[in-house]
Write a structure and sequence with these properties.
Strand order of the largest sheet: 6-5-4-7-11
Order of helices and strands: HEHHEEEEEHEEEEHEHEEEHHHEHHHEHH
CATH class of the largest domain: Alpha Beta
Number of helices: 14
Distance between the termini: 9 Å
Number of domains: 3
Strand content: 15-25%
Oligomer: single chain
Helix content: 40-55%
Number of strands: 16
Radius of gyration: 23 Å
Shape: globular
């Protein structure tokens, strides 16, 4: 199969995207979902199998009579993407196949928090992965625990980074492959919308509480990124104490009422240097029966729920997913979260309020989302043309 041509190329992309969204789908289901004739679906699938983009295997037995059914899925020699994550304490790198299956993952801790040291380690690991699969790896997605603007790591408090341009170094390591950079909460929301707790949602509001609050609105499978890619910094809405300055430079940020620093104040302690680690420790204490820790979480959970109510009024999602400490608040202080949430809703929302759900992927959400963003670059007509070129 050579390059794509117009209609056939578009059909191939559509089929691949459908299989990527639902691996183990049958040809008949693909034809039905895409409104393709059975002959067209069979022809397109056959060409994709011939090009090592898809594979076909017997479906699990159902016990019913009739011809055996086969399922479409990733080819064992098919395209892969790299999904990477830079967190405040370490890094992760996954190789992912079509359909979201993880081939392998490696993780490590930062020896230094300097941008050059962290990025040097990551580029080394990317080059090693590229050398193992020089032709199959087709794109790279990277999640970053901080604000991302115009493909630069604009700001992250825990690492002390400001306006770090990563393209020159990472672009060289990826050897000209598409490179997608994204905020961790944004990519975590993309993961929940496409593969997680909100696949039934048209418009998702995702919130991740870690060292502050980040999030994203995902509308019909696509994240809203804003004019420069920095949308979703919901933690910096002015929902907090205006007398309190946030590390971001603004005053009155919602994050300051919800993160580990807020838990420390509720416990009568000073703000710790690592607010996420402190918050996780308070959660662990509450689970072990510490009443003071639980009361601090309940206090902070009310501020979390009230903010969610305001965001629902402004953004009109049909589902909210929460990750990080937000998921812990929902578990340990569910009544306080939901009471403040409902109190903050406009009257017309209260009859049928959007449900708040715990994120399915949790800490793995950013990696899953980074893989999705990378496959968005592969599952295009130009992406397929690049695949056919390397297979010649």
């Amino acid at each position: 199969m050579g390059g794509s041509d117009g209609r056939s190329g578009s059909a191939a992309v559509d089929v691949l995207r459908r299989v990527h969204a639902s691996p183990s789908i049958t040809r008949a289901e693909v034809a039905r979902d895409l409104a393709l004739g059975s002959g067209t679906a069979t022809e397109v699938a056959a060409r994709l199998i011939q090009s090592h983009l898809l594979d076909e295997s017997p479906a699990p037995p159902t016990g019913s009579r009739g011809r055996p059914t086969t399922c479409l899925g990733p080819h064992p020699s098919g395209p892969l993407v790299l999904a990477a994550e830079i967190e405040h304490d370490g890094w992760a790198l996954s190789v992912v196949e079509l359909g979201g299956g993880v081939v392998r993952t490696q993780r490590g801790s930062h020896r230094s928090h300097r941008p050059d040291a962290v990025l040097r380690t990551l580029t080394t690991k990317i080059r090693e992965a590229m050398s193992r699969e020089p032709h199959r790896l087709r794109a790279v997605g990277i999640s970053f625990a901080g604000a991302v603007q115009d493909d630069r790591f604009a700001q992250v408090h825990n690492l002390g980074w400001r306006d770090v341009d990563v393209r020159p170094l990472l672009g060289e390591a990826t050897e000209g492959l598409p490179l997608v950079l994204g905020n961790d909460a944004t990519l975590g929301g993309l993961a929940e919308a496409r593969r997680g707790a909100a696949t039934d949602s048209a418009t998702l509001l995702h919130l991740r509480v870690q060292a502050g609050i980040g999030g994203v609105v995902v509308d019909r499978g696509q994240p809203f990124l804003g004019s420069s890619g920095a949308a979703g910094e919901f933690g910096h809405l002015g929902l907090g104490d205006p007398a309190r300055r946030c590390p971001c430079g603004a005053r009155g940020c919602w994050s300051n009422e919800v993160d580990g620093g807020a838990l420390a104040r509720a416990l009568g302690r000073r703000t710790p240097p690592d607010t996420f680690a402190f918050g996780a420790a308070v959660v662990a204490s509450a689970r072990d029966g510490d009443g003071d820790a639980l009361r601090a979480i309940q206090h902070v959970a009310s501020a979390f729920g009230a903010g969610i109510g305001g965001l629902v009024n402004a953004l009109d999602p049909d589902v909210i997913t929460v990750a990080g400490l937000g998921a812990d608040f929902l578990e340990l202080a569910n009544r306080q979260v939901r009471s403040a949430y409902l109190s903050g809703l406009m009257t017309f929302h209260r009859a049928d309020p959007p449900p708040i759900r715990r994120a399915r992927f949790g800490a793995d959400g950013p990696l899953v989302g980074a893989a999705e963003a990378a496959f968005d670059q592969v599952l295009t007509e130009s992406g397929l043309d690049a695949w056919y070129a390397v297979r010649r």
